[in-house]
């Protein structure tokens, strides 16, 4: 059956974990190959300035689930084991609108079996240290409850297998080695296999919302051998390093496999980037696999597809790794929307320059479903932008992340970015149009003094009244203790 009896569009949301905005070949990346995603972008709408306002897994997913800004949803940093108690969620509102809702893969909510409005979840969040605490009295049974992929892997390949078999850390972005089992057993393949199984078992009288949520290319960097071979001998350019980077300090972190800041030997960095790009190409092929099966089921033409990432990965830019930072590699994400049916009247093959954020996903998908958008949603539907209209749009977004001495805030419109490190008071200003790699800090340039004041005032307005006390008498206050979770959701 090609569509539900309601005539509403099915919705397929692809999310990946820790994929940089520029790692699509259609974006001009010199190395990575993503033909299936490129085709979606060529037929749909590609966004040039999409961001995760709080770029790590939990707060980014809170924005997707709730449509709220980080100030509203309360997650302004990374903190595990804080219960999710939101009245309105994306899958919950779609379920109310008559959709059959399913998530496969990573949710990263708490408790881990919290459905958050889904009818069902098939779960693989990746390796979580708090779930693996072997001092817990019921370790084995608890782990079985947390991870459907690991249970499946042991049933399929043998009880001796575990997520640690390769010896790679789940937060290491600097080392890689190929996947050691048959490719069909990789979690990326499993995520698509389970998504296909949902298509087989879905309620044919309802439209569906399927969230296919990949853990990769988040580390461990463990691509199947065939994909690693695509990139392992490719000559890699040097990553950008800004004029503001402390090279001596970077050298001190060079040999820690899970470093956040370190000048990594080029050979090791190139292998890590090869593994990272290989994981992205692997995902691209598996996206193509799922789309082919949707065509076989007669579902493709009536399914609207959105692809994005929860945040990026610095991957050596300015000698930084991982996420939680305000720079483009960490906070900027791929974002593309495709409507095969043509019902939504998109300007196919167009690109949108307006700044969008993960909070815009919920109102966009509810708009597609002709479902009401709850009043507490801060995001905006991007459909008018996709249709070539010129709606009133936000002037900028405010992003932040509690991150110890690197706790940061930023405001950007995709052309200018202002950054403030709350613990040191360091300011940075970048002209992203002329300097997309953020190599030249303009904060101390006399030519940009008025621009610096303007953008600092935007951040001051955003932080006014915050419980941390970041603003006093209209000025930013340095050294106020950051918190990962605001008190109103505890």
TrEMBL record:
InterPro entries: Alkaline_phosphatase_core_sf (IPR017850), Sulfatase_CS (IPR024607), Sulfatase_N (IPR000917). Residues 9-370 form the Sulfatase N-terminal domain. Signal peptide: none annotated. The keyword Hydrolase applies. It holds the Pfam family Sulfatase. The keyword DNA-binding does not apply. Keywords: Hydrolase, Metal-binding. Its EC number is 3.1.6.1. It comes from the Bacteria. It is an enzyme of class 3 (hydrolase). PROSITE patterns: SULFATASE_2. Belongs to the sulfatase family. This is Arylsulfatase. It comes from Paenibacillus phytorum.
């Amino acid at each position: 059956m090609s569509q539900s009896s309601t005539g509403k569009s099915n919705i397929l949301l692809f999310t990946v974990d820790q994929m940089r905005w520029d790692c699509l070949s259609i974006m001009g990346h010199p190395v990575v190959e993503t033909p299936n995603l490129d085709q979606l972008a060529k037929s749909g709408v590609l966004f040039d300035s999409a961001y995760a306002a709080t770029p790590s897994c939990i707060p980014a997913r809170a924005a997707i689930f709730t449509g709220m800004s980080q100030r509203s949803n309360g997650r302004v940093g990374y903190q595990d084991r804080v219960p999710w108690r939101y009245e309105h969620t994306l899958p919950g509102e779609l379920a109310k609108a008559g959709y059959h809702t399913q998530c496969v893969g990573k949710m990263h909510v708490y408790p881990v079996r919290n459905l958050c409005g889904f009818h069902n979840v098939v779960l693989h969040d990746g390796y979580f240290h708090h779930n693996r605490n072997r001092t817990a009295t019921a370790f084995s049974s608890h782990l079985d409850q947390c991870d459907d992929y690991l249970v499946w892997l042991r049933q399929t390949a043998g009880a001796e297998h575990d997520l640690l078999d390769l010896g790679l850390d789940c937060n290491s972005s600097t080392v890689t080695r190929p996947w050691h089992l048959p490719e069909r057993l990789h979690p990326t393949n499993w995520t698509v296999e389970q998504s296909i199984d949902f298509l087989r078992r879905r309620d044919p009288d309802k439209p569906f919302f399927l969230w296919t949520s990949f853990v990769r290319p988040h580390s461990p960097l463990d691509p199947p051998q065939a994909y690693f071979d695509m990139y392992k001998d490719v000559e890699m350019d040097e990553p950008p390093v800004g004029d503001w980077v402390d090279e001596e300090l970077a050298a001190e972190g060079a040999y820690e496999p899970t470093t956040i800041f370190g000048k990594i030997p080029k050979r090791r960095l190139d292998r890590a980037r090869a593994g990272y790009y290989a994981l992205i190409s692997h995902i691209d092929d598996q996206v193509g696999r799922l789309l082919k099966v949707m065509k076989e089921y007669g579902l493709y033409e009536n399914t609207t597809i959105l692809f994005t990432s929860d945040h990026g990965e610095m991957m050596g830019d300015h000698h930084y790794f991982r996420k939680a930072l305000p720079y483009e590699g960490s906070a900027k994400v791929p974002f593309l929307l495709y409507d095969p049916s043509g019902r939504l009247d998109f300007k196919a093959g167009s690109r949108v320059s307006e700044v969008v954020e993960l909070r815009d996903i919920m109102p966009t998908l509810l708009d597609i479903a002709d479902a009401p958008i709850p009043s507490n949603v801060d995001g905006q539907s991007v459909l008018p932008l996709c249709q070539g209209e010129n709606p009133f749009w936000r002037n900028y977004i405010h992003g932040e992340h509690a991150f110890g001495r690197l706790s940061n805030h930023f405001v950007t419109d995709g052309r200018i970015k202002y950054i403030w490190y709350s613990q040191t008071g360091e300011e940075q200003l970048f002209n992203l149009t002329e300097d997309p790699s953020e190599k030249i800090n303009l904060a101390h340039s006399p030519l940009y003094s008025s621009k610096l004041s303007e953008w600092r005032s935007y951040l001051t307005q955003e932080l006014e009244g915050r419980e941390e006390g970041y603003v006093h008498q209209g000025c930013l206050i340095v050294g106020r203790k950051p918190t990962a979770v605001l008190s109103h959701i505890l």
